Amino acid sequence: MSPNNPVITVLLIDDHPVVRDGFRRILENTPDIRVVAEADDGETGYALHREHKPDVVVLDLNMPGIGGLETVRRIKAHDPGTHILVFSMHANEIMVQRALEMGATGYLTKQGGLGQMVQAVRQVKLGRMYIDPEHVSCVVTNRQLHDAAINPLNELSKREFQLFKLMAEGNSVGEIAETLSISSKTVGVHHTNIMKKLKLQNATQLVRLAIHCNVIES
Question: Among 27, 97, 132, 211, which is most buried by a count of CB atoms within 10 Å?
Fold first, then answer.
């Protein structure tokens, strides 16, 4: 590879070995991309990012431990110039919006984005937003993503949305506090604000809303 076309280094973060193997095969089948490290959870991925300083991070959102959104937040907090491509099963507006708000540069869905992986990595490396046009065209066609009447979750801040997702997944206050490195008291304050903003009365209603908005699966 010539100096004018340097190799793009990539870190893969996904908890499914078979999926990571597929990513690696596709990416390394091109002369200008090299996978330098792999991780199966966000904590390990964050540590490997600090060690290898890759050009692009490709990660899933649903992972054990801190999860994809918090991994994006931590990586961007440590290195704001990092380029991150989310490759997720979620093909809905709210998850795309939240990933981009956290700092992701691109978003592909596992339903149809695999063939676009190489192009997406190259674009994201240049700092250009790359969104899967088939599944999330709403982002590039300027739909009203911030209209609470369309999606009530748009009322939540970035941090509140993180907690909302973790709560809907059944995590306890202690588990959420440990995952996000915040106090249980802070989790409680956020929980109260979330319930008030969304006009929810109990955990069952919270889970139902998360399923309705495609944040978690039923």
Answer: 132
